[in-house]
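Researcher: Structure prediction, please.
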Amino acid sequence: MTEPDDIATSAAVVAADVTEAKDPQDRRRLVAAFTGAAASGARAAGRGVRAARRGAGSGGGWLAAQVIAMAPRLRVRDIQALRAQFPGKLDEEIADALIEGAARASAAAGGAAGVWAVLPVLPAVPAEVVAETLLVVGIEIKLIAELHEVYGTPAQGNLAERMSAYVAAWAHRRGVFMIPGGVVIAAGSPLARLLRRRLAARAGRSAFSLGPLLTGAAVGAVLNGRETRRLGQAIRRDLRRHALTGR
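Model: Predicted structure follows.
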């Protein structure tokens, strides 16, 4: 699970599963299995600290590459699937449910990663930071994509182009149609630099999950849930405004 393609694929699958899980215990189990496997794999490969420095350290280029690789693999429900999953709900109510579901999933990611900090020996602590960061970003990109579906403004293009647009929306904290300068994530571009800065900040918040005893788990859960909810509401405001004005 710790090779670049493997961790991106695994993070995409777990981000979707944990977001759509209805039972809190299922969410915790999914996240704990993912972060535990990522850390164990990093230790077995002797890459724990090295991977973390490359992934969450200065620049964040490795971590950005994993996010870009993960995005097209996320399971995004279109509007028909969402309405079938939330029968009888208005679109605004579906948006409410998506934001709250993502916030709960993000909180579970912080809480589960924090539990690892109570173990007597944790030689690959940075691997948990990388795993949690990827998982939460996956949850949030999925949320952004599905909110665009709800409000009738999905990104255009093929799968890779659409998901790149949602990665850009995550970095800008804006709807796809509000992103300045396009959505091509080329090395050295302003968007690439912004993505790396956002990921560095996200990794820094993930580190709170690894605080002493269960304090880290509690703090990680609260911070994650709050930030994901805030992001969802910001995207939603843009989408509502666009629906009203057409701009």
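Model: The chain has one domain: 4-245.
Researcher: Thanks, that helps.
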